[in-house]
TrEMBL record, chain A:
One of its GO terms (cellular component) is plasma membrane. Belongs to the complex I subunit 4L family. InterPro entries: NADH_UbQ_OxRdtase_chain4L/K, NUOK/Mnh_C1-like. NDH-1 shuttles electrons from NADH, via FMN and iron-sulfur (Fe-S) centers, to quinones in the respiratory chain. The immediate electron acceptor for the enzyme in this species is believed to be ubiquinone. Couples the redox reaction to proton translocation (for every two electrons transferred, four hydrogen ions are translocated across the cytoplasmic membrane), and thus conserves the redox energy in a proton gradient. HAMAP family: NDH1_NuoK. It catalyses: a quinone + NADH + 5 H(+)(in) = a quinol + NAD(+) + 4 H(+)(out). One of its GO terms (molecular function) is NADH dehydrogenase (quinone) (non-electrogenic) activity. It is a multi-pass membrane protein. This is NADH-quinone oxidoreductase subunit K. The gene is nuoK. Its main location: membrane. It holds the Pfam family Oxidored_q2. Its EC number is 7.1.1.-. PANTHER family: NADH-UBIQUINONE OXIDOREDUCTASE CHAIN 4L, NADH-UBIQUINONE OXIDOREDUCTASE SUBUNIT ND4L.
Automatic annotation (TrEMBL), chain B:
The keyword Transcription does not apply. Keywords: Cell membrane, Membrane, NAD, Quinone, Transmembrane, Transmembrane helix. Its EC number is 7.1.1.-. It comes from the Bacteria. Residues 188-221 are annotated as: Disordered. NDH-1 shuttles electrons from NADH, via FMN and iron-sulfur (Fe-S) centers, to quinones in the respiratory chain. Couples the redox reaction to proton translocation (for every two electrons transferred, four hydrogen ions are translocated across the cytoplasmic membrane), and thus conserves the redox energy in a proton gradient. This is NADH-quinone oxidoreductase subunit J. The chain crosses the membrane at residues 6-26, 33-50, 56-78, 90-113, 152-173. One of its GO terms (molecular function) is quinone binding. It is found in: Cell membrane. It is a multi-pass membrane protein. It holds the Pfam family Oxidored_q3. Belongs to the complex I subunit 6 family.
Length: 105, 221
């Protein structure tokens, strides 16, 4: 499998996914859409970790362990982020990022 | 065999990147969440192709099963009634696109052109005997690692999850006395109009139909 696909191809897919997620996180106005962009970025990081594990250190578990921890942190982040979105919606009746600017200096 | 693997990889890459583009570009948030599920499935299939079975299963369980459902519920609970400007526009959009493309180039140029990855060659078959199987860390090694080498990190991850979920409940909790009646979209529109009289309201973006745009224009006038 490793001689069929070069490592750079997998890294290219991950980089594209990361940049698309960054664009979504920066350009979308809906808070849930911003969170979806962050999830895409976390997925890209995970692809990178698994690819490096598979190609460089396939005999050790470190790469997979990292990926599992990233998935855990992503789940926690999604839960807290969506709870905050719901709380903000209750307070300001909006889910638009630009309308929540009370901490703007 | 190699051609088949390359074909599958190409299809998966197209699925992942294409659905990710749809996630950030489609107008309806619900549709974006559904495209996100497709993207998660593609990433899980890519893990399977990279022979990380446990991560693939965890991806499907956690991302497709939990996070996307959470996102869909959050979308339903926070009904948006000003989705017409769903993306930044003008110079902000230009700057954002430039930043993303520049980051892509800055990551990709060293990856492909200047850096050499010391990928160990796969075991080759000697004449007379088949190729020895490559040593891959499987689920058993992963479980042993969690119990022995990474015990502390494993416990910390558990504590993090507990704290995050309790925090999410505390943040989203609403006292019964302060609970407001759920407004319909029309009532909410009235509230919004009272709160911000300066800004002209926009309606009809929940179902972007050909009739909606002229109606909203008529109301603005």
């Amino acid at each position: 499998m490793t001689n069929a696909i070069p490592l750079e191809a997998v890294l290219m897919v991950a980089a594209a996914l990361f940049c698309i997620g960054l664009f979504g996180a920066l350009a979308r106005r809906n808070m849930v859409s911003v969170l979806m962009g962050v999830e895409l970025m976390l997925n890209a990081v995970n692809i990178n970790l698994v690819a490096f594990w598979r190609y460089l250190e396939p005999g050790f578990v470190v790469g997979q362990t990292f990926a599992i921890f990233i998935i855990t942190v992503a789940a926690a982040e999604a839960a807290v982020g969506l709870a905050m979105i719901i709380a903000i919606y209750r307070t300001w009746l909006t889910s638009n990022v630009d309308n929540v600017a009370s901490m703007k200096g | 065999m190699n051609t088949l693997i390359q074909l599958i990889f190409g299809l998966l890459a197209a699925l992942i990147v294409g659905s990710a583009v749809m996630v950030v570009s489609v107008r309806n948030v619900i549709h974006a969440a559904l495209w996100l599920i497709a993207c998660f499935f593609g990433v899980g299939a890519l893990y399977l192709l990279l022979e990380a079975e446990f991560i693939a299963v965890a991806q499907v369980l956690v991302y497709v099963g939990a996070i996307s459902i959470l996102i869909l519920f959050a979308i339903m609970l926070t009904r948006e009634s000003e989705g017409s400007r769903y993306m930044v526009s003008g110079w902000r959009l230009v700057v954002t696109a430039i930043v993303c493309v520049a980051l892509f180039g800055a990551v990709l140029v060293p990856t492909i052109f200047t850096h050499t990855w010391n990928v160990p060659p796969p075991p080759v078959a000697t004449p007379g005997s088949p190729a020895p199987p490559e040593v891959l860390a499987g689920v058993e090694d992963l479980g042993r690692g969690f119990v022995f080498s990474y015990m502390l990190q494993f416990q910390v991850a558990g504590v993090l999850l507990t704290v995050a979920l309790i925090g999410a409940i505390v943040i989203a909790f609403e006292e019964r006395a302060r609970r407001r009646r759920v407004l319909t979209l029309a009532e909410e529109h009235e509230v919004r109009k009272r709160q911000k009289p300066a800004r002209p309201p926009v309606t009809g973006e929940r179902t972007p139909s050909p009739q909606a745009a002229p109606m909203s224009d008529g109301e603005q006038g």
